[in-house]
């Protein structure tokens, strides 16, 4: 990206030009030091308005669930309903597997054929930024770019495995968990952790023309709602469990109404505090991620890594002593 003119880019983004949005997101995804400096400059510009950051009017929603549950199909349905109602919808994805594969199955435009060509929607697949922390950093910054460009709904798709949904829950206002009709013992298969961070739960694939399946979904929703009452205390937001069919669009509007009910429950002040707390949490996550990177790439640490590994594996060196040795190698830098 030669000759990045931050002022011109800012102007383009604020005018809502797609090309400017794309260039800016590519910039914030870059790990090159020169790009990082420009990205900081850009984000400072974009984040300086009264309607930005914690006070952005945008509705930020995370959408999670196992692969195949229907996230992309649901987003296609919801997104087109929202653009039809006059909203501008941004879709981002956080996919830690893209780090390994170099490509993302999330934010997959082939699963969102209408939204992909909708001029009021912008879809961006997950960056392959090396670490979950790197992906999260890029995603939060892409969110800032989209909101500055007037996208008033930002949907972040992520898979319901590993740490990624926790990361996404920390960057959105409302976390929506999509699941399938499971009952009884199968409910155990849903990780408790994900139920704790979910604000709205929808049992998907409750197609109205398949009455058996729809009934099964309603039953599962009831059972899940019962299980959830044990997780959440009195006076807290009780996550509603509803059914929908992303494929037909049936009751997708009801799911969206629940998202708004959750926002109403938070209130303006609650939302402000939630976002501010997320910023603080994210600050430390970024610091930890950066320190981790520095540790990994530190030459003195690299120099002793193999030997420490061999000694720990053979039982000659205790883990605590091994850790001390690695940290000492890292700290030596200060004495250079
Ligand atoms: N019957 C039915 N199938 C669905 C529904 N939503 C998604 N699917 C199908 O489930 C498969 C996975 O959907 P996809 O949106 O790619 O799931 P993702 O991996 O969670 O993003 C596709 O074959 C979809 O057509 C639904 O509401 N009803
Ligand atoms: Mg998908």
Main features:
single chain; alpha/beta; binds magnesium ion
Task: Give a structural overview.
Helix content is about 55%, strand content about 10%. The protein has a 7-stranded parallel β-sheet, sandwiched between helices. It is an alpha/beta fold and about 325 residues long. It is globular. Strand 5, helix 9 and strand 6 form a beta-alpha-beta unit. It has helices spanning about 5-15, 20-30, 35-45, 70-85, 95-100, 115, 130-150, 165-170, 190-195, 210-230, 250-295, 300-315, 320-335, and strands at about 60-65, 90-95, 120-125, 155-160, 175-180, 200-205, 240-245. The chain starts with 5 loop residues before the first helix and ends with a helix. Magnesium ion binds next to helix 4.
């Amino acid at each position: 990206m030669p000759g990045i003119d931050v002022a011109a880019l800012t102007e383009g983004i604020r005018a809502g030009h797609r090309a400017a949005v794309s260039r800016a997101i590519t910039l914030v995804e870059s790990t090159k030091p020169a790009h990082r400096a420009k990205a900081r400059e850009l984000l400072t510009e974009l984040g300086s308005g009264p309607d930005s950051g914690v006070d952005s009017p945008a509705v930020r929603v995370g959408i999670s669930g196992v692969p195949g549950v229907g996230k992309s199909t649901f987003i296609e349905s919801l997104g087109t309903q929202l653009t039809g109602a006059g909203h501008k919808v941004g879709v981002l994805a956080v996919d830690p597997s893209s780090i390994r594969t170099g490509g993302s199955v999330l934010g997959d435009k082939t699963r969102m054929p209408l939204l992909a060509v909708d001029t009021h929607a912008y879809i961006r697949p997950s960056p392959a930024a090396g670490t979950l922390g790197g992906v999260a950093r890029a995603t939060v910054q892409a969110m800032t770019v989209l909101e500055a460009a007037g996208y008033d709904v930002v949907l972040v798709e992520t898979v319901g495995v590993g740490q990624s949904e926790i990361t996404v829950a920390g960057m959105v206002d409302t976390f929506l968990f999509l699941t399938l009709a499971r009952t009884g013992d199968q409910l155990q298969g849903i990780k408790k952790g994900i139920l704790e961070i979910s604000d709205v739960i929808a049992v998907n694939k409750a197609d109205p023309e398949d009455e058996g399946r729809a009934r099964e979904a309603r039953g599962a929703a009831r059972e899940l709602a019962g299980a959830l009452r044990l997780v959440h205390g009195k006076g807290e937001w009780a996550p509603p469990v509803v059914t929908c069919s992303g494929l037909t669009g049936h009751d997708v509007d009801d799911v969206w109404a629940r998202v708004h009910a959750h926002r109403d429950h938070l209130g303006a002040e609650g939302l402000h505090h939630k976002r501010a707390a997320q910023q603080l949490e994210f600050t430390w996550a970024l610091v930890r991620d950066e320190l981790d990177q520095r540790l990994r790439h530190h030459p003195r640490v690299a120099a002793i890594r193999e030997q420490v590994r061999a000694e720990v594996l053979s039982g000659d060196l205790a883990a605590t002593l091994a850790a001390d040795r690695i940290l000492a190698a890292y700290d030596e830098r200060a004495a250079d």
